[in-house]
Amino acid sequence: MMDMLAEWWLIAIVVAASTLRVAAPLVLAALGGMFAERSGVVDLSLEGKMLSAAFAAAAVSAATGSAWLGLAEIGRAHV
Fold it and tell me: Residue 60 burial by CB count (10 A; 0-12/13-18/19+): exposed, middle or buried?
């Protein structure tokens, strides 16, 4: 009985950690949208920017064979 309870706690902790890890980019995009809205700029393309940056990073990584260059492309795509 104790092993099953420990296993359920482990599953709950793994699910919570996964939720936080996956939600982080969306939370950051929402914060960016909030600050843009507060400054008077309506920015409706936050998810599109995230998608285009991810595509550019994957394309650069695939073309060059270097994950580091793909990460550098993410930094350039948001500017």
Answer: buried
Query: Six-digit token pair at 22?
Result: 């996956």
Query: How far is the C-alpha of 66 from the C-alpha of 10, rounded, in Å?
Result: 35
Above 70 in pLDDT, residue 2?
A: no
Residue 56 DSSP class: H
What span, in angstroms and rounded, lies between the C-alpha atoms of 4 and 10? Answer: 10
For the full predicted model, state whether its pTM sits above 0.70.
no
CA gap 53, 71 in Å, rounded: 10
Looking up tokens 């994950």 gives 67
